[in-house]
């Protein structure tokens, strides 16, 4: 049961449009529209949208729309006529859409804004409750995957995108930095969910890292765990000792991030 203040009409059908970084949008994801922000425009015409949960999705333009609020019987910001979809060739569907709107088909605000129940796999329907088993990660979702060595140890975390889920909690992923041997595209691989995680939240370090900070260093296309062993005097540069191989290398500030551990689906700072 919904309160009337949480119900609004279906937004008018609109033409696909060009978005820019910083646009506040609604993204169609897991059977509903979720609020987010455009953080990157890709060369293939798709967009990277960051949801309020920090999930980052690569989406085609047809799965995006500008955020609008329903206030006092009007859409804010209002839709310009040039934004409205034109369906001259399919007047039957247009008539059906108009009739549906007149009949009072409404859309819940709970489906347009991300809530604490999003991603649980429970979908409410008029006839009752239907439970859908959802995958831990979704098609198009940006993730990081473990780079496992011959001895089974994780060497680094590499950026990737979920291509599709397969059986037994496994996924087809496409790397964002590793290319195929013949350099025809980015490497595609099947991975177990135990070796996949969401990208960590961006924790800004406004000035500089400190001695003994636990960090990840961007090296050979992946994020390698290490510790700051020296803050260099010539600007924002640091010596980093890698945990896995004992090497010490020099990095600039922009190639480092604070290290976080993904434990029980939560990000935690490592113990000092």
Automatic annotation (TrEMBL):
Pfam families: Agenet
Agenet domain span: 17-72, 135-204, 207-264
Domain of life where this protein originates: Eukaryota
Chain segments carrying region Disordered: 81-139
Residue spans of biased composition, Acidic residues class: 81-92
SMART domains: Agenet
Composition bias, Polar residues: 119-130
PANTHER family: AGENET DOMAIN-CONTAINING PROTEIN-RELATED
The protein's name: Agenet domain-containing protein
């Amino acid at each position: 049961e919904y309160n009337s203040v949480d119900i609004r009409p279906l937004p008018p059908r609109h033409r696909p449009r060009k978005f820019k970084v910083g646009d506040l949008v609604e993204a169609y994801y897991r059977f509903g529209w979720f609020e987010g922000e455009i953080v990157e425009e890709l060369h293939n015409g798709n967009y990277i949208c960051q949801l309020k949960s920090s999930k980052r999705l690569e989406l085609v333009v047809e799965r995006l729309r500008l955020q609008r609020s329903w206030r006092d019987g009007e859409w804010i910001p209002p839709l310009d006529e040039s934004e409205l979809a034109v369906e001259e060739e399919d007047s039957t569907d247009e008539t059906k859409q108009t009739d549906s709107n007149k009949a009072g088909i409404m859309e819940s605000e709970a489906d347009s804004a991300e809530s604490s129940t999003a991603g649980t796999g429970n979908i409410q329907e008029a006839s009752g409750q239907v439970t859908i088993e959802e995958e831990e990660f979704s098609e198009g979702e940006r993730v990081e995957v473990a780079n496992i060595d011959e001895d089974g140890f994780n060497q680094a975390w590499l950026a990737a995108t979920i291509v599709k889920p397969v059986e037994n909690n496994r996924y087809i992923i496409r790397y964002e930095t590793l290319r195929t041997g013949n350099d025809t595209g980015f490497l595609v691989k099947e991975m177990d969910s135990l070796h996949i995680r969401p990208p960590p939240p961006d924790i800004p370090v406004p000035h500089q890292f400190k001695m003994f900070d636990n960090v990840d260093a961007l090296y050979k296309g992946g994020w390698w765990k290490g510790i700051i062993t020296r803050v260099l005097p010539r600007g924002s540069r640091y010596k980093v000792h890698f945990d896995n191989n004992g090497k010490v290398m020099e990095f600039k500030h922009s190639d480092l991030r604070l290290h976080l551990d993904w434990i029980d689906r939560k990000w935690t700072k490592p113990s000092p």
